[in-house]
Specification:
The complex is a heterodimer of chains A (217) and B (1075). Chain A is mostly helical and 217 residues long. Chain A has 2 domains: 27 residues; 127 residues, no CATH class. In chain A, 24% of the residues are buried. Helix content of chain A is 43%, strand content 1%. Among the domains of chain B are: 196 residues, 3-Layer(aba) Sandwich (Rossmann fold), CATH 3.40.50; 173 residues, Dimethylsulfoxide Reductase, domain 2, CATH 3.40.228; 128 residues, Barwin-like endoglucanases, CATH 2.40.40; 244 residues, Alpha-Beta Plaits. In chain B, helix 4 packs parallel to helix 26 and helix 7 crosses helix 12. Chain B is globular. Classes of the chains: A mainly alpha (217), B alpha/beta (1075). Chains A and B meet through helix 5, helix 6, strand 1 and helix 12 of A and strand 2 and helix 30 of B.
Chain lengths: 217, 1075
Amino acid sequence: MSRFLFPRWSNAALPLVAVGGAIAPLYIAFLIAYAWSPKTIEVGYKPTQPVPYSHALHVGQLGLDCRYCHTTVDRSAHASVPATQTCMNCHTQVQKDSPKLKPVRDSYASGLSVMWTRVHALPDYSYFDHSAHVNRGVSCVECHGRIDQMEVVQKAAPMSMGWCLECHRNPTDNLRPLDRITQLSWDQRTEMTAEEREALKKLYHINPSENCSTCHR
Amino acid sequence: MDQTTSSSCEIRANDAPLAPAPTGRGHWRSVEELQQTPEFRSFLDREFPEGASEASEEDRRQFIKVMGASFALAGVASSGCLRWPETKIVPAARGTENRVPGHAVSFATCLQLDGVAVPTMATSFEGRPIKLEGNERHPSASGGSSAMTQARILELYDPDRLRSTTHKGAASSLPEFDGWWATRANELRAKQGEGLAILSEASSGEAHARALELVTKAFPKVRIYVHAPAAMTNEQAGTAIAFGAAKRVLPDFGKAKVVVSFGSDFLADHPASVRFAGDYAKGRRLDSTDPKQQQLTRLYSVESRLSLTGMNADERIAVTPSQVQAIAAMVADRLGAVPGCATAGDARLEGTDAKVAQALIKDLQDAKGRALVVAGPTQPAAVHAIAAAINQKLGAAGTTVSYIPAPAALPGIAEFVRDAASIDTLIVLGGNPAYDAPSSLGVSGLIAKIPNVVRLAYRQDESSVACAHGWVIAAAHPLECWGDGAAWDGTLSLQQPLILPMMGAEAGGLSAVELMLRLAGSEPRTGYEFTRQVYARKSGLAGADFEVAWRAALSEGWWPGTSAKPQASLSVDTAKVAAAPVSITAEGQLELFFDSKVHDGRFANLGWMQELPDVVTKLTWDNALLISPAMATRMGLKAGSMVRVTTSAGSVVAAAWVLPGHADGCASLALGYGRGAAAGRLADGCGFDGYAVMVPGAFSSACQFAKDSGSYDFAHTQDHGAINQFDTTVSALKPNVPADGAAERLGGLVREATLGEYRDHPDFAKHRVHVVHRLSLWEETNLDGAKFRWAMSVDLSTCTGCSACVTACQAENNIPIVGKAMVKRGREMQWMRIDRYFKGPQGSPTGFAIQPVTCMHCENAPCEQVCPVAATVHDDDGLNVMVYNRCVGTRYCSNNCPYKVRRFNFFNYHKRTPDREEGFLKTQPEYYISEGPDRWLQLQFNPDVTVRIRGVMEKCTFCVQRINRARIEAKNGWAQKGGSAGSPDWKVADGAIVTACQQACPSGAIVFGDLNDPNSKVSRLHRQPTSYQMLEEINTKTRLRYVARVTNPAIERPAANDGHGHGTPGQDAQNKEHS
């Protein structure tokens, strides 16, 4: 049996293979960098919740303050998701027969929790503290985006370490007076001058830490 | 002189002092160190002993399997491009008042031990109890807790706890039990309860007493027995001899100037030891502004085994148990407290011991009302009677000691054994009489013969097995049920639950009180209603008044006005004391004592307790027959040799452990070990059973020892973390200082002086070394301008070595246990270790030293210089930070740490069964269950601390989670008040940050704070002349400094190469002779 010989036309394919071989690693690197980036896999995460609760309606239109439900945001590391009782404060009167609210009514009657799906999750080895931020003039909107315009809550920022550090290294633009912390439509970048923001930084001794021990312990 | 050939400990025939060891200048860690055995060298020279760093063959296969699985998972993960696994947020349906998610809440409660309430603060995080502390607001407490209290949180989540009710071994339920009992109770009621008996563990609660009353009312002929092996029965018997009625002794160590302990380990083995340690520390702290005026309590200890209290004593006489009694009698005789005491003539004291005894008597006479004599719970009644007589004679009663009536004595296990044949229905409430009564009584056999048995058991144990032919009901943990108890001073303390019984209402989860209420058929049946009813009756309050009082008592943890009134005028019947019976006179003697970790055996299944090195022996996972070096030489024994111990009650084969400082002519064995599979997955196979040789009613007995074949492998930590100060420093000094003579210019790791030396040279610790401050090879970390400079001070004068800090750290920081096989390789994970040192000749050490060691948070940290990935770095406040998610596990940092305080996760210990043996002999069922519904142990985790996985280094963080919490709270408060418009800058108040070890320390030896505040406690302590750094000569600039130890010996001894060292030529010459 004679030796196998590549047909003559295959010579033309050789440079193509060489070019492909040279590009492939770059392509794979790009794919990994893009596909694994928190920006790609985190931002826009928008799970369906058991109750179609609309922040756009409650906050944007009705003007509820964030802290009406997320009561412990200025006291604790956790912002706290409200008990069913909080929903029922109004919904015993308002929309009390709405089929959308059935899980809430069931929960209130049975005492079993509504199982919300977590949207903003940090790795177990990082310890973020809400109270340390909202008491320094960092508004909810800086991390969570315009919740007041969201029908369904979605993740607005990658919440990666690099993203945290961007602000920790350069916090001034993200500062506002404490009494405007939960006003998501108000923007200090347009409403305040750079000097005023700088003054806030001095007022609250904002000196964000870049120490590992601040978040990892 | 024997030549050392093997790695295990051999005893030199000659008892001459040996060359000073390199580690401690006159202090030595172990017999192995004195002999420089290869095993010791491997711990000293290497970061880990040889072979410890290599994974075993089996592990390699495991590794490949695991890696295979990881790659497969990685493939799944990347193909799906998943974010984090989907998790749920589960808010309560109805809000709880004052509950803030993310904030831990503490509740005052109490835990009973041997029928004495231990005041406790229990911390709950979102409904899970995660930590226990002492309740400082309780009148019988002085802050701090014990290692046992710390470990009892693990008891709640013990994977071997009973989770269901069984009848004749088959699954059943409480309603079925109620049905069975209804018929049974009718039959019993017809006979007025004839044949019904209750065998209960001790409880001092009012609710318990009232429930017993109700049972007695329903069944008038019921017989009640109480079995509490470690209750203070000898103290009660002794005081009954002396005063005519049983008393409870309340010593006040804070007021005493001279304390004499006859076999009492009051710093460790006493229900109130936490309080005692706190009081004792008051008299041992260097708190006088003028060193010349400094006074220290002097502690004498006359004992057989080496106890924690004995290690802390200024003068110690180590004699056999019968001699302890003879010496006590002799002292009483000389003081005229008990003229003509029966055993006084037998005291044999020679040499130094005789001088010490003379000084002891003189000190007692001189101190008069400020003297205090205490006797240990394992001492016979006669010694307690003598102690009471001496205290009375010296006028101590009323000042340093007071007495309250002892709880009424009920029939005990001996009476139960006597009556067992006539019992047809037995209720066993808690305890474990089938194991922790002397085996010769045959309790388990007797129970097995009783036709109707109801057992309320916390875990599957020997007694539950003995009761398996009847009902076995799962008991609730004290953190799961209502109740109460009386503290040592009699104060009634409330026990409130933090969580519902974890097995569900039908499966069990009853307290002893609740079961008795069911038996009596009385209402109310719940512990809550009943306890309230009992206290309403007791206090005579009702309605709103009661509600106010009840809530206040719950908040504080105790009911006001219930402390027992000390009895003032007591008189001692000296004739009766003089005639108190002599316990033993035989040659060979055995002393049994309660273990410092597993107690009477009840904590044997708690991993933290098993793995905690005993502070005296440094053994983990086992007890041992403790013998003196001289006895070892005589019998040709070494550590691990098997010895057959035979008493009149039985015999046991136990492995010997040679303990310098142990009395010659006797041996001692800790109780609570030597159990089989019935005891639980961790307790199984640990140590040797002392109850097998226990003569009923006596802790000391005549005994024969015979060498047996075979040997035993102990996992001890006495050489772990040994620091080669000499070599380390010489290599650092090498360029400009000749090695010759360097050793005597080095300050020891432990620095101590006598009170006399301290008065003359208050700065003695600094003069132990004249450090040439050198330039650093590296650019030093610039910590200027830091807002805080966190630092710690550890006082070696008041530290007793109780190890509460080690366990508290383990609980706070999610530190796993690793198992005996791993400890042998030096892989134990506790962030703190307690170094123990002997001084003087090995046969009869003249002193002991104890030194807690944890990360020193060096400003010039050697670990940081070698980390290739910057996983260990400094933060601005000077903490040496370990970043787990950066660590790649090179272990260079650990290699370069001169203090040997870094711990490496060789395995995923939190998901791994702690191995008892290496290789294929692993027998334990899985402990850390990582999947399925039985993941109870994970519920204990502190959510504020990362749980580390395989391959990362870890170490003490100075409790950075507590620091951060205090900082954030302080700055939040400041910002809410207007920031710098309100006050110029924010502060963290001194004392706002309390580290876990500091919080647990009963003697307040650990202080943490900010050095930038010149008035903080830690700043003041660092400025004390006695403050020193460990290994100061290598220029690490540690943030943890020790306060040197000052002892108060009664007699002069030649300084053991540990003098006011300036490297004098004389000392140089002396050292050359040794080297």
